[in-house]
Design goal:
With 197 residues, the protein is of the alpha+beta class. The chain folds into two domains: 5-52, no CATH class; 56-195, Alpha-Beta Complex (Nucleoside Triphosphate Pyrophosphohydrolase). The chain contains five helices and eleven strands. The protein is elongated, with a radius of gyration of 20 Å.
């Protein structure tokens, strides 16, 4: 069954305010009211919760001369029970106040893997989990220019380890479904579809 776009929107949204706040996120609530599905039926009312986060970036970094991608491994508590917690990811982080996403891309790559990059190319700006969060992630591709240090993360409670993988090895684990992080999976999908290798 198809629906016109207007029938997908609630008729009313009653905001109920912040129900939780931490240094990194907020959770707010709203009652969404949809028109009755059939004449004479009651309207549908549901409480929805939304995780509010600042914008973020993720950067697929390629060392062209070496033919390698540069990733980070780090522990992710929210997924520890399902995956063991150690994920292979592209460098990523939150856009700080006063920064552009491009500036954040340069900073996060330096902090996490200790590399200076060429100007990052924006691939897409996507919602990471629109079913419950408004987090917008800007995905970039960049070529490594210079290795400065080992990186390792600058935020308290963050530890990262730089991982270099050949393009062929990265493609193998991507094709085998071994990439558990969505932003990493998506940027590799872009690279392999565009480059055809």
């Amino acid at each position: 069954m198809t629906h016109c776009a207007s029938s997908l929107r609630p008729a009313e949204i009653h905001r109920q305010g912040i129900v939780f706040r931490s240094p990194h996120l907020e959770v707010d609530a709203a009652e969404l009211v949809w028109p009755a599905r059939q004449p004479g039926a009651e309207t549908d009312r549901h409480i929805h919760y939304r995780v509010r986060r600042r914008e973020a970036v993720g950067v697929l970094v390629l060392d062209q001369a070496a033919g390698e991608f540069l990733f980070v491994e780090q522990f992710r508590y929210p997924v520890a029970e399902r995956s063991g917690g150690i994920l292979l990811e592209i460098p990523a982080g939150v856009v700080d106040d006063g920064e552009t996403p491009q500036q954040t891309a340069h900073r996060e790559v330096m902090e996490e893997i200790g590399v200076r990059i060429d100007e990052p190319i924006l691939l897409s700006s996507t919602f990471s989990a629109p079913g419950y969060s408004d987090e917008l992630v800007h995905l970039f591709f960049a070529e490594a220019r210079e290795q400065v240090d080992d990186g390792g993360g600058a935020d308290p409670g963050e530890r990262t380890r730089r991982v270099r993988l050949s393009i062929s090895r990265a493609r193998q684990i991507w094709e085998n479904g071994e990439i558990a992080d969505m932003k990493t999976f998506a940027t590799l999908a872009w690279y392999f579809s565009v480059q055809g290798c």
